[in-house]
Specification:
By secondary structure, the chain is α+β, with helices and mostly antiparallel strands. It contains two helices and five strands. The structure holds zinc ion. Zinc ion binds next to strand 4.
Amino acid sequence: MIQIHMIDGRNCPMPMCDVCGERIEDAGKAAVVFQNFTPNGSRLGVRFVHKGSIDGRTCHDKAEAEISTAGGKPGWEELKMFLANLAFNVGFPARDMAAHDNNRSRP
Ligand SMILES: [Zn+2]
């Protein structure tokens, strides 16, 4: 899920792991898990998770197991690629993002 965290007077959007509930701080160590191989036109929710078994976490495995247990076939995408695809799909491709960076510091 995405939350807004108030930090030093700023509204900071943060991805949170849908399994352990902790903040996802590194896009390279995170993934989005979803039910895969569904019919054309399907609309499905996604689960933000800590990826693989990085840093001893099992969030990714747990999310996939939940989908399998429910009879689905899990799929996943690295969070970096998901965010790039998401931005592209709302008409805001990554190449246009630099103009909005504003040299902000990371909370
Ligand atoms: Zn997690």
